[in-house]
Amino acid sequence: MPPKIKHIPVNILPAGTREGIFIARASFNASPDIEETGKSHRDNGHLFILQEAGTTHIEIDFQKHKIEASSVIYIHPSQVHRLILFENATVSSCIITAENLNPANLQLLESLNPVDALALNPDALTIISETATLCIKLAERKQERLYDAILKESCNVFVSLIASQYLEQAKPCDSRSRFEVVTKAFKSLLENSFASIKSPATYAERLNISTPYLNECVKTATGFPVSYHIQQRVILEAKRLLYHSDKSVKEIAVDLGYDDYSYFTRLFVKLTGITPIAFRDKNLD
Fold first, then answer.
1. Which domain holds residue 241?
2. CB within 8 Å of 65: residues ≥ 6 apart
């Protein structure tokens, strides 16, 4: 295993691209030729991979995925991932930072996270692929007086089409219960607050509902109470930091909002069955 560093690497968009937006299409049939993508990392933007041909093998948060044509996958900036192998693959990929997403898209993506690869029917593949082609062509037209606006708006259309596919293949919005609506809002808030807020009551207050009602909604929609989701999100981040960085367990506990190191360790053992040190040592093998 390569030497650890203090923080999980965050890959920045390549020099020469419009700041905050990258879109390209390429074909590969080998392991990644860019070292930064073959190592575990986060991106500084929202990543979309359109699998137009072949297969891409990728690891996301300790889970290996085999993405086959024709499909798409969305990876949130918080997710740690690495490319493993391309097999006769043609992919269109887009990375776009939060400030370049329109508010509706950004809110939607936060509520979708995390998701698995999504198979596309021929019509969906065609329209998304054609949109990617248009975005790539527009990205090359740097002489346009309104270049930034043109590229930003076109890439937001690409993002909207992908998000729309995820929504279409989920339960229709008008048939979602109130429980599911509240649960979705809770999960979005949790993603941004898990390190600082551990109390179900505080989440309920932020959502302007009572704690019992929040618990009822979340448990009905997912089968688990609010506290379970808070703990699971914290433990996922702890695993990321234990595996991908050389921070001490005490430093990780503090980063995740636990001043009591021993309590954090007991919680980790309760939820994973092993100590944080044992988890780290196991993954060094």
1. 178-282
2. 57, 58, 59, 73, 116, 117
